[in-house]
Amino acid sequence: MNAPNETFEATMTRFIRATPEQVYAAFVKPELLARWQCPRGMAVEATAEAHVGGSYRLAMRARDGSRFVVIGQYTALEPARRVGYTWAWEGGGPIPEGTFTQIDVELTPRDGGTELCMRHSGFAAAAVRDSHAQGWASVLNRLNDLLDPQGTAGTLTLLGDARSTYVRTARMAFAEKGVAITLDPAPPHSPAVLAVNPFGRIPALLDGQTPIWETSAIVRYADECFGDGPLLLPQSIGARMVCERWVSVINAYCYDTMVRRYVLQYVQPRGDNGQPDRAVIDKAVPEMAMQLAELEKAYERSDFLAGGALSFADLFIAPILAYVERMPEGQRLMTDMPNLRRAQAALRARPSFAATEPQ
Ligand SMILES: N[C@@H](CCC(=O)N[C@@H](CS)C(=O)NCC(=O)O)C(=O)O
Description:
It is a single chain. By secondary structure, the protein is α+β, with helices and mostly antiparallel strands. Helix content is 43%, strand content 22%. The termini are far apart. Glutathione (GSH) binds next to helix 5 and helix 7.
């Protein structure tokens, strides 16, 4: 139970590779506010009268058309040092209508950039404070994208070895969305990966301070948070069902058969005298043949697995097939699969494939 009149506050700190003047401008110029002041996946229209007592308004719009409007007034403006403003949700929402919370931002020059410290205070409940803190984590990532000279690559770091098929799937998704990321070639179960993903698998994504892991979750994040173009997850239920089905099949069966029990036997041989383990390969090949035959049927009418357009399903299988077709049995099986070869050729022609080719 809250004590009477008890309020809660959230404090967020960020280092931004930009001058305090640039960070300050992003809080007071409407044309700049309109480029960052909303969580990922949303768009915002902004008005702002940058003087103490002046009003501002942020109209945020989600992909599904829902709108959320924030209003308030500037309470403190010290160029390159401090911004204060009140914050309320028009029409209620997370905070009851007419209740103003307070934001205080302090900017300190540090290491050629700026340390931003934001305090958002006056919440009536810890849960509302926490949901705002989560929102700010996403909003401040957008501020970082805008001001860091590296853009999104200064905010988004994907951890994982470029040779991993799952890492390539995630990188292709970002490349398809036109989003630059930084690749940190951390091996599975390394301290850097474990700090993001408790299961130690790669890829693992850090968006600013937000950890995101499991390839399916990462590609969904890439898809929904960036760009206004077509989504990689089909929107019609028929095509979406086919896409999700293939992603599930690839994760549950194809990766195990084709990568773990086949490709890796050649790439990282664990048999006698450092040779590939023939028994493991011989057991995997018939299963791989069955899976490839199903894929051959699925690619019969289109270069894509679901809905006649590129989707996650193609991004999950392409990096696997790129290895399979280079191994003796895989190459032989795929020789008789013209649909699969055609679809792979179409995928290989995409810039996202060339840009993610492992060394
Ligand atoms: N379910 C995970 C699987 C990721 C995965 O298995 N990645 C491999 C590299 S391709 C890995 O980390 N292997 C280390 C291990 O198996 O411990 C995902 O979808 O991200």
